[in-house]
Design brief:
Elements (H helix, E strand, L loop, with lengths): L2 E6 L4 H12 L4 E8 L7 E4 L2 E4 L1 E2 L10 E4 L3 H13 L3 E4 L15 H4 L11 E3 L3 H17 L1 E10 L6 H15 L31 H13 L5 E8 L6 E9 L5 H10 L3 E3 L11 H4 L5 E8 L6 E8 L3 H17 L6 H5 L1
Parallel strand pairs: 1-2, 1-6, 2-5, 6-7, 7-8, 9-10, 12-13
Antiparallel strand pairs: 3-4, 9-11, 11-14, 13-14
Helix pairs in contact: 1-9, 4-6, 4-7, 4-9
Bound molecules: NADP nicotinamide-adenine-dinucleotide phosphate.
Length: about 350
């Protein structure tokens, strides 16, 4: 007897990817239920070789559901996740609503799977921001080797990170430029086609954006509160995969060779680093893949014990859906959650 899993936001970018990943990885589910807003009731989504009809979240009873993969934005999560959790269904939430709650574990399985145990306080587990997920996967083996003191990261984030409407906006603006139509910006604060925008999410009082703040705070919660981190988050006209230029200062000496070896051995990381034209990974190549790719590893001689590298990953997969499914797998594999159907039998 397997698990009953509900996907909230199953018509969205991340929700659809969750359905694909559950099917690809053969997650032990007896039943998968696809939920979204009332607007989408009756529309169909694919799950492996099956088709699921969307049901409305507001009419769904979670009493016999084991796991809810929640991917419908912060407002929906704030309203629904606590109620679903109280019905004994574990919510793995993709929004930022509960990430900074000390009673909610924030998990990237390659980095801090053991912390998942704390989920029983609220029956909620948070998935990090997409830029944080790939960053901590790459930083973890380096931190274990030479203890990270400070990180400076600039992100180059694809439009899919802002949802399906944002992807449509890049497409329609690009088309408008080619046919000389007026370019309309709705989802982004400025035109994104043939442009880059140094603002993701709202501005905070100190001049950082909320996206930058999330990367800083989440890296500390997942990896180590002692790490100092500063971030500049930039939206680029790419459909899928986020890239990051990362500069790291360590407590102890570390060579490029040692870092490369540690990264090659690390779970979830693939090193592609040939010092020749094209000998690195770009977002286009990472789309649809599970790995966090690391390229361009080099010494930063301007500081003591410094390294720089380039890191790329599919934001809809490792940055969201894959990470959420991996968290569900931790619950299952470590027997932290038994199917309700089995308990009832
Ligand atoms: N995209 C990323 O890289 C990424 C990474 C990490 C985390 N996240 C987070 O994941 C969540 C979803 O992102 P996305 O990119 O998939 O967005 P999206 O493509 O815009 O999809 C949003 C989904 O939420 C559903 N929804 C909206 N209002 C709802 C309501 N009142 N009740 C039930 N369902 C509702 C939508 O259903 P309808 O189709 O019926 O409107 C749709 O399925 C967000 O919290 C986002 O911050 C995204």
């Amino acid at each position: 007897m397997g698990y009953k899993v509900a996907i909230v936001g199953a018509t969205g970018n991340v929700g659809r990817e969750m359905l694909d990943i559950l099917a690809e990885r053969g997650f032990p589910a007896d039943e998968v239920v696809a939920l979204a807003s009332r607007r989408s009731v009756g529309t169909e989504v694919s799950f492996g070789d099956k088709t699921l009809k969307i049901k409305a979240l507001e009419n769904y009873d979670f009493a016999d559901t084991d796991i809810c993969l929640m991917s419908a934005g912060g407002d929906v999560s704030r309203e629904w996740s606590p109620k679903i959790g109280r019905q004994g269904c574990v919510v793995i939430d993709n929004s930022s609503a509960f990430r900074y709650d000390s009673d909610v574990p924030l998990i990237v399985p390659e980095v801090n799977a053991d912390a998942v145990k704390g989920f029983t306080k609220k029956n909620i587990i948070a998935n990090p921001n997409c830029s944080t997920a790939q960053l901590v996967v790459a930083l973890k083996p380096l931190h274990d080797l030479a203890t990270i003191k400070r990180v400076v990261v600039a992100t180059y984030q694809s439009v899919s990170g802002a949802g399906k409407d944002a992807m449509d906006e890049l497409f329609s603006q690009t088309r408008a430029v080619f046919v000389s139509d007026p370019v309309e910006a709705k989802k982004f604060p400025k035109r994104i086609a043939f442009n880059v925008i140094p603002q993701i999410d709202v501005f905070m009082e100190d001049g950082y954006t909320k996206e930058e703040w999330k990367v800083m705070v989440e890296t500390k919660k997942i990896l180590d509160p002692k790490i100092k981190l500063t971030c500049t988050a930039v939206r680029v006209p790419v459909f899928i995969s986020h890239s990051e230029a990362v500069n790291v200062e360590f407590e102890k000496p570390i060579t490029v060779e040692e870092a490369t070896e540690a990264l090659r051995a690390a779970p979830g990381v693939l090193v592609v680093d040939k010092r020749e034209p094209g000998g690195y990974i770009t977002p286009y190549e990472a789309a649809g893949e599970d790995a966090t790719y690391v390229s361009r590893i080099r010494e930063d001689a301007t500081v003591e014990n410094g390294l720089s590298f380039w890191c790329v990953s599919d934001n809809l997969r490792k940055g969201a859906a894959l990470n959420a499914v991996q968290i569900a797998e931790v619950l299952v594999n470590r027997k932290l959650l038994l199917p309700k159907s089995q308990k009832a039998a």
